[in-house]
């Protein structure tokens, strides 16, 4: 007998997806089984990046084991990649299921969820000579090339995101095909049958209010001090230092802007990120069998119980 699909929760930042995952896991426990939450987040993997990534606190985890967090060093010279995450997540999911434990994958990094559900586009290996050439370009010229060769990627990659801009151009130059076209091949592929995607929809105005409130709470909770500690420990790698809020607060600490300006820029960039996540949500949710929840309705007990029971034999 095949095990039922395990839950994969995807939603924009500040949607309440972590709370939903914990609620499902706790209900599974009342049915005599156990569940672990596996984070699918490109920044929660980093140790010390806690407040700014909204990493669930011990209290918020409510005794439910959380994995795939705190597994990488933000100061390591080589960033933690989606390939690293997918390899570790696949292995752990298999181990948990073999032991009768239900994995609940939860995250807001669309690339990680996309890779888990549809497979990963194996792009060409990094060409350091080409990357050096691209880094040496004027940012405006580099952006213009991306807009010319891959307008779809340019629409979703922020002009200041040098790392992703360079990778998109690199893939095009090495393969002759836009990286966005390669990624569309995943979307056209049927999702894995052993996973059940759950997405949470929020009205845009309400989600933006939640994002602004979260940023204010992060600042009150010591986010600036967290960024200062990370910087004092050494240079952060090219991925970690681009985290939402981390980059903006680092600019403040370097004297490039006031604290109020850094906080406001963090809110703006997080709202922009949320918009990008909603675009991915529509793509991911188009597959058959996806459970679409209305965030404004809250965590209704009947819904949580139904999702928990669907994950059990």
* Helix segment tally: 14
* SSE ordering: EHEHEHEHHHHHHEHHHHEH
Helix content class: 40-55%
CATH class of the largest domain: Alpha Beta
The CATH topology name of the largest domain reads Rossmann fold
Largest sheet: 6 strands, parallel
Radius of gyration: 20 Å
Tally of separate domains: 2
Q: Which band does the percent of strand residues land in?
A: 5-15%
Query: In which order are the strands of the major sheet placed?
Result: 3-2-4-1-5-6
Spatial gap, N to C terminus: 9 Å
User: Which second-level CATH architecture of the largest domain applies?
Assistant: 3-Layer(aba) Sandwich
Give me the CATH superfamily of the largest domain: P-loop containing nucleotide triphosphate hydrolases
Query: Would you report the number of β strands?
Result: 6
Q: Briefly note the structural class of the backbone.
A: alpha/beta
- Average pLDDT for all residues: 92
Looking at the structure, what is the overall shape? globular
**Stretches with pLDDT under 50, minimum 5 residues:** none
Main traits of this protein?
313 residues, alpha/beta, Rossmann fold, 14 helices, 6 strands, 53% helix
What can you see in these coordinates?
The protein has helices at about 15-30, 60, 80-100, 110-120, 130-135, 140-150, 150-155, 160-175, 180-190, 205-220, 225-230, 245-255, 260-285, 300-310, and strands spanning about 5-10, 35-40, 65, 100-105, 195-200, 290-295. It has about 325 residues and is an alpha/beta fold. It folds into 2 domains: about 5-120 and about 195-310, Rossmann fold (3-Layer(aba) Sandwich); about 130-185, Histone, subunit A (Orthogonal Bundle), CATH 1.10.20.140. The protein has a 6-stranded parallel β-sheet, sandwiched between helices. Helix 10 crosses helix 13.
